[in-house]
């Protein structure tokens, strides 16, 4: 009976997030068609690109839905983090560090390639939401991963519609550097490489923790602090409340991720020690 109730809760959650995804898609299509926002086509390009990558992995490597999803997520993290580093490096080479983190730059301007990169990444989150719903790659009554993607889709899309806080959102994507190691760990374990004492796994865990604290935790805390410090500089409207809401959600999810990561680290070390004792 409890099992049936649990499944019904997951089904309701899936239906809710599917409905929000469809509403999001209709909104984007209407914005492109009626407001002639052709630059938003890069969102659909992102969706199609990652869905194509999904089909390629499924056809050529493995048909396991979790492996396919994780592989495409690894591709997204690699492309997005490389794009963010390129955008920031290009900006630094052209202008130095002058006014990069000024309020007017972060809110009212868009660095070269930033708008397209944000559209492309937004397309990925829509694709990934659909893939997880299609293959039920989530669990719980309120699946945190689906909540995470919904928050990002709302924040990214509204920013793209209004052409504001583009650079702020690019900075939030620095966390994708850490996501590379999260997804690498998943793929590595699915490939059967689980010896925590091996050099490769040790290096992976070191990089995982370093970039969790630097590229994810510290970066998002910095952005949140910057928003609070510059709160008086925002015009009256939805931008500041939405930005603070989004970052509050991201920081809470980061804390949860940190606990999950620590739990996974302890389990992997304990399992490895147990295996070596038996040998």
Automatic annotation (TrEMBL):
It is a multi-pass membrane protein. GO terms for cellular component: plasma membrane. Residues 62-279 form the TLC domain. It is found in: Membrane. The chain crosses the membrane at residues 12-34, 40-61, 73-93, 113-130, 142-160, 166-184, 205-229, 241-265. Keywords: Membrane, Transmembrane, Transmembrane helix. InterPro entries: TLC-dom, TLCD. One of its GO terms (biological process) is plasma membrane organization. Its main location: membrane. It holds the Pfam family TRAM_LAG1_CLN8. This is TLC domain-containing protein 2. It comes from Rhodamnia argentea.
């Amino acid at each position: 009976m409890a099992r049936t109730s649990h499944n019904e809760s997951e089904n309701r959650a899936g239906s809710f997030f599917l409905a929000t995804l469809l509403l999001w898609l209709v909104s984007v299509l209407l914005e492109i068609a009626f407001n002639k926002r052709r630059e938003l086509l890069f969102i659909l390009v992102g969706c199609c690109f990652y869905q194509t990558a999904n089909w390629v992995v499924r056809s050529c490597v493995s048909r396991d839905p979790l492996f396919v999803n994780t592989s495409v997520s690894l591709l997204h993290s690699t492309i997005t983090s490389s794009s963010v580093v390129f955008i920031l490096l290009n900006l630094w080479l052209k202008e130095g560090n002058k006014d990069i983190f000024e309020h007017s730059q972060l809110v009212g301007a868009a660095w070269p390639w930033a708008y397209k990169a944000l559209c492309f990444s937004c397309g990925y989150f829509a694709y990934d939401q659909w893939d997880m719903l299609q293959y039920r790659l989530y669990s719980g009554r309120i699946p945190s991963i689906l909540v995470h993607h919904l928050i990002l889709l709302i924040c990214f899309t509204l920013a793209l519609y209004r052409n504001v806080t583009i650079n702020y959102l690019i900075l939030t994507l620095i966390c994708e550097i850490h996501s590379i190691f999260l997804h690498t760990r998943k793929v590595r374990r699915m490939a059967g490489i689980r010896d925590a004492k091996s050099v490769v796994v040790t290096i992976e865990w070191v990089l995982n923790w370093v970039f969790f604290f630097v590229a994810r935790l510290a970066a998002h805390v910095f952005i949140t602090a910057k928003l609070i410090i510059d709160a008086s500089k925002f015009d009256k409207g939805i931008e500041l409340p939405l930005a603070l809401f989004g970052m509050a959600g991201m920081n809470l999810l980061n804390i949860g991720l940190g606990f999950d990561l620590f739990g996974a680290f302890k389990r992997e070390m304990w399992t490895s020690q147990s295996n070596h004792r038996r040998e």
